[in-house]
Structure to design on (428 residues):
């Protein structure tokens, strides 16, 4: 029998059994074996115990109980002495053990919470624990993320139509090559540039000019963005080969002038927006609801990052920035200002918004170098840019940032027009 006749003789049911219906099972088995081989049996048992606890809680189909149980489980990996107690069960030592332990553990809790919350919304019955294990042990996302919400993963991994778009494989290859180049660039930055170690030497950075200090602060955020883009880009490329549509890599730090778009992990951001921010803030029109939603979101984020003084300060400032942005927006939507803007040209309106966007950009930079460096370095940069550097350095840096925001807003406008045209073409 030739090969074509053999293929034609196979029943469709067996074809789906081998290649499509049970591919999630193969992902799960491979992920469990990889975790077992790299971290050991005790670590695997710790992960499975948390999965079992949150699955049991999901059976009650009570959202508040899912939140309480999930956040308590997350706290056991972020708060002492529970964190050290659990990590103490894992014997042996290698360079990445701590990173893999806390990365896999914390991402597991976020995935289990997503599973529990989606099960609570399921009208009939509940998803099986087998669905949870297939979701949690998908290896590309297990240790480093990003978090893909359960509803998206479940729908995509169980689809029978495994087709690819035109030029999709070509795009995957291009992205893979770009990520290899980015990995080399990150390695060069880490070994031959001193942007990460210079901020710790306050005597040296005090001697830098205002421009050099601003460039150093900005470079720290760029490096952190490139590192995040590489990490999530590699895992996303593998996921796309498995016919998944994972969360996109973070938006470039240079293009961030709005607090609402400031995130280095789009998966966690999507998780927080769906289950906390949008859940409490609803349509985000009410200022009080928005305040409660942002406080709750940053409270969960603080627990996710690990409670400490720097994280508390970072959360408070970013929470204030997000709310202040909304307050300013609501203020200028009042009738006198709305009528005034309606009389302006689109270009003039964009210029005025870019002035506020430039101030926002540096607020985002200053708030986030807190988490990357130290409070002392952040205070030094703030003092030099706003006080001792005023007016020459302050206004000149603000003007250059303003020009950059103008270019970014124009690019976003052009992309929106192109997207609108392509949507119309699809409809026609």
């Amino acid at each position: 029998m030739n090969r074509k006749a053999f293929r034609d003789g196979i029943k469709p049911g067996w074809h789906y059994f081998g290649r499509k219906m049970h591919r999630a099972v193969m992902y799960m088995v491979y992920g469990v074996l990889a975790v077992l081989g790299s971290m050991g049996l005790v670590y695997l048992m710790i992960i499975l115990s948390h999965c079992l606890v949150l699955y049991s809680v999901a059976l009650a189909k009570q959202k508040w109980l899912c939140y309480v149980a999930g956040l308590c489980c997350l706290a056991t990996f972020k708060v002492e002495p529970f964190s050290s107690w659990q990590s103490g069960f894992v014997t042996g030592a290698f360079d990445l053990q701590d990173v893999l332990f806390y990365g896999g553990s914390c991402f597991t809790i976020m995935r289990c919470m997503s599973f529990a919350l989606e099960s609570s919304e399921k009208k009939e019955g509940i998803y099986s624990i087998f669905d949870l294990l297939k979701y949690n042990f998908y290896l590309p996302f297990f240790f480093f993320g990003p978090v893909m919400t359960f509803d998206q993963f479940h729908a995509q991994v169980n689809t029978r139509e495994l087709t690819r778009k035109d030029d999709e494989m070509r795009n995957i290859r291009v992205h893979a090559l770009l990520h290899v180049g980015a990995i080399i660039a990150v390695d060069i930055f880490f070994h031959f540039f001193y942007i990460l170690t210079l901020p710790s030497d306050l005597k040296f950075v005090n001697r830098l000019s205002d421009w050099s200090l601003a460039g150093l602060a900005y470079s720290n955020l760029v490096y952190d963005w490139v590192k995040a883009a590489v990490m999530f880009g590699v895992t996303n490329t593998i996921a796309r080969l498995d016919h998944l549509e994972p969360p996109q890599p973070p938006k470039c730090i240079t293009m961030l002038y709005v607090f609402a778009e400031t995130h280095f992990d789009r998966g966690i951001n999507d998780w927080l927006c769906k289950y906390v921010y949008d859940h409490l803030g609803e349509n985000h029109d009410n200022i009080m609801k928005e305040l409660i939603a942002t406080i709750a979101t940053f409270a969960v984020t603080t627990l996710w990052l690990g409670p400490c003084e720097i994280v508390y300060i970072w959360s408070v400032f970013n929470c204030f920035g997000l709310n202040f942005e909304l307050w300013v927006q609501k203020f200028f939507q009042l009738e006198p200002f709305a009528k005034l803007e309606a009389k302006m040209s689109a270009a003039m309106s964009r210029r005025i918004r870019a002035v506020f966007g430039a101030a926002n950009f540096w607020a985002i930079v200053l708030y986030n170098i807190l988490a990357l460096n130290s409070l002392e370095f952040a205070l030094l940069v703030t003092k030099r840019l706003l006080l001792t550097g005023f007016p020459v350095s302050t206004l000149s840096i603000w003007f250059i940032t303003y020009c950059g925001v103008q270019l970014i807003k124009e690019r976003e406008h052009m992309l929106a027009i192109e997207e609108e045209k392509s949507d119309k073409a699809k409809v026609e």
